[in-house]
Amino acid sequence: MRIxxxxxxxxxxxxxxxxxxxxxxxGLVELGHDVEVFSGQPYPEILDPRVRLTEVPSLDLYRExxxxxxxxxxxxxxxxxxxxxxxxxxxxxxxxKTFSMRAARLLAARRGxxxxxxxxxxxxxGLLTIQNSGMPVVATVHHPITRDRVLEVAAAAWWRKPxxxxxxxxxxxxxxxxxxxxxxxxxxxxSAADIAEDFGVDPGQLNVVPLGVNTQLFQxxxxxxxNRIIAIASADVPLKGVSHLLHAVARLRVERDLExxxxxxxxxxxxxxxxxxxxxxxxxxxxxxxxxxxxxAELLASAExxxxxxxxxxxxxxxxxxxxxxxxxxxxxxxxxxxVVGTDGQCARLVTPADVAELTAVLGELLDSPRxxxxxxxxxRRRALxxxxxxxxxxxxxxxxxxxxxxxxxx
Length: 411
Prior knowledge:
Residues 218-383 form the Glycosyl transferase family domain. InterPro entries: Glyco_trans_1 (IPR001296), Glyco_trans_4-like_N (IPR028098). Residues 15-216 form the Glycosyltransferase subfamily 4-like N-terminal domain. This protein has 411 residues and is of the alpha/beta class. The chain is built from 16 helices and 13 strands. The protein has two domains: 2-212 and 390-410, Rossmann fold (3-Layer(aba) Sandwich), CATH 3.40.50.2000; 228-387, Rossmann fold. It has helices spanning 16-30, 79-89, 95-108, 126-132, 145-155, 161-167, 170-179, 189-199, 242-252, 271-278, 293-302, 317-324, 337-341, 356-367, 370-387, 390-410, and strands at residues 2-7, 34-39, 52-55, 116-120, 137-140, 183-186, 206-208, 228-232, 259-263, 285-288, 305-308, 329-332, 348-351. Strand 6 (183-186), helix 8 and strand 7 form a beta-alpha-beta unit. It is globular, with a radius of gyration of 21 Å.
């Protein structure tokens, strides 16, 4: 099968999107399929050599080190460029829509080159153009962005609330597009229920395919650093619950020596950095970002506990990677986290979201119980091996492609 895999952002460290594109495309070519990734910026840094990459350049208005830059007049060449610029200047986020429009233009000239088009998360109006041209379209929705919007609006200062709402205006477009694509993929039954509720899609459109993990790369280490906690946050936003973990760490350090390895790209002088300083824990919080897969695997395997304090997760790759690493998990009872780590307490301890006292108590109990840490870690490794693999993800996804193709053939 000839597959066009679309992703408006594909760099591995842009959260789960980049990881998904990289490993799904590899799994598909392992099954003998032909895959071409169409990506906006930032482009994927690593793809399987058998996977072709077509770059879909934009104005790249959020690039480092000059986000929200002012482009030169000569860069504005098309109506799409102008829409991207004006949306950014009016506090909106244009990338999902403008990437999909550019991808639709590219694919219009290559209709005969692909059997199916698979969108990763953008849900832009350009997908409807592609679908209307007669090409089968499948779209992955990791979780409804409406959940992020609710939490960020609630956490914002009163004067920022209108700006946050404007930023998330693209969610209304995603709702409309999702309702009109017959085959949707999501990563958990929790996400499926939330997408059906928030986006108003027919539950029959949704196919649940959990994400996978490389269990050869992510595996237990021989030795762990005593009292080391690790947390991974793909974005410095309230949704990830990092502030609650920092408060818990500040309480725990009173009675024990410990350290927190926080893998996150923090906003310079932003709320998380300020909170670390205010709590007086700068000496025990070590921040890193942009790690390679091997560096992340090594860090995860070195910790005694992995903490996922999110207020919502549509899946959680860090949870699966921690389980594969044999690292015990303390996670919020929120979103899909119970579904991913299991509710039976065999490989994770679940806590009430945003409850700092409970989080502090559970972390302290585990750090004081080597036997329980060992039990949770062993069970987590076993669950990762039995339940999550990229080979299975690719095979299940191909079955959805085939249904999409059959649907178009009978229309």
